From TrEMBL:
One of its GO terms (molecular function) is pyruvate dehydrogenase (acetyl-transferring) kinase activity. GO terms for biological process: regulation of glucose metabolic process. Keywords: ATP-binding, Kinase, Mitochondrion, Nucleotide-binding, Transferase. It catalyses: L-seryl-[pyruvate dehydrogenase E1 alpha subunit] + ATP = O-phospho-L-seryl-[pyruvate dehydrogenase E1 alpha subunit] + ADP + H(+). The keyword Iron does not apply. Pfam families: BCDHK_Adom3, HATPase_c. It is found in: Mitochondrion matrix. This is Protein-serine/threonine kinase. Residues 233-361 form the Histidine kinase domain.
Amino acid sequence: MAARKASEGLSKLVGDEVQRWGSMKPTGVSLRYMMEFGSRPTERNLLRSAQFLHKELPIRIARRAIELENLPFGLSEKPAVLKVRDWYLDSFHDLRSFPEVKDKADELAFTQMIKMIKVRHNNVVPAMAFGVQHLKKDLSPSFVPTDFEEIHEFLDRFYMTRIGIRMLIGQHVALHDPDPEPGCVGQINTKMSPMKVARAASEDARSICFREYGSAPEVSVIGDPNFTFPYVPSHLHLMVFELVKNSLRAVQERCMDSDKDALPIKIIVADGIEDVTIKISDEGGGIRRSGLSKIFTYLYSTAKNPLEENYEGVHQGVTMAGYGYGLPITRLYARYFGGDLQIISMEGYGTDAYLHLSRLGDSQEPLP
Ligand SMILES: Nc1ncnc2c1ncn2[C@@H]1O[C@H](COP(=O)(O)OP(=O)(O)OP(=O)(O)O)[C@@H](O)[C@H]1O
C-alpha cells in the first residue's frame, strides 16, 4: 500500500473510527490468566479468545496510531515513522473490517489474519530507531538530550504495548499447536528451566561474538539445574542474550586493549519466593558513572550505529551492538510480567546486571 502523507492527517484517513477505538480502555491480562485460560484450548475457549482479541487489538493498535501522529519535534513526519504508522493503520483496518467471530471457521480465518499482522509489524523497532536517529541528526548540533525525554517516554510506552500486542497474538496462535511440547501452554512453558534458557541464550550471544571478534569469552551458568518456573522462554532468551552480548563485548574489547586473557562471564540463577533473579557479572571494565544515567535511553550507545544507512533488513544480521536499544528493551520485557532490570557498575572493574523475574506471574500487563 502506498505510504500516506502525514499532512493528510489521521481523522481524514479513517474518519473518527481510530479516535473512537483509541479512546477505549485496554484490558490487561496476567501471565497466570494466560496460563490458566490456555491450559484448556477447547474450541469454545479458542472462540472466546478470538472474540476478546477482535475487540482488544483494535483498541491497543488505535491508541498507538494516534500517538504516532502526534510526536514532538516533527518525528511523526519522518518517512520511517510514517511507514510504521501505516502498518498500524493497515492492521487497525484489517481488524475492524473482519466480521464478528461466530464459529470455528471464523476463528481460524481470524487467527490467520492476526498472524499476518504480527509479521507486518516485525520491523517496527529498527524502523522507529531509524526515524529517531534521523531526527537526532536533524536537530544536532543544538540537540539537547533532555529534550528527548518526551520521546523516550513515548518509546517506552510504544514498545511496551508492542510487547503486549505480540504476546496476545503469539499466545492465541500458539494455542492452535496440535502437538505442544510437554508443559507448554502456548508460548508459556509452565516448567521453564532458567538455567537451560540462559545457557542457550549465552551460546547464541557467543556465536555472534565469535563472528565479530574471532573469539568469545567463556560464560558459566550457576544454579539448580532442576529448578523450573512458569515463564515465556522466548522473552527470557531475548533478555539474557542482550545482557550477555553487552558483557561479551565489554570483556572482549577490554582484553584486546590490554593483551590480557578474556575473563569469563558468570551467570547466577537464584530462586526466591517472590522473584527469580538472574545476575550476569562481567569484568569488562564497567560503565562510567557519567554514562550510567544514559544507558536506559534509546539513543545512547558507545558502538557504531548500524542504522546509519537504512533499516531495511537489519534483522537479517544481528550485530554485536549499535542501536543502544538492548538495555531499555530488555527492561521492558522484564517489566511486562512484573519484573525489572538493574545495572550496577564498578568503573575500572566490571558490571553486574540483575534481571528480576516475577515468580508469581500475577501482575497485570502494564498498559500505558
Ligand atoms: N556489561 C557492560 N559493560 C560495559 N558497558 C556496558 C555494558 N552493558 C552496557 N554497556 C554500555 O551501555 C551502552 C548501551 O547498551 P545497550 O545494550 O542499550 O545498547 P548497545 O549494546 O550499544 O546496542 P544494542 O542496541 O545493539 O544492544 C553500550 O553501548 C555500552 O556502552
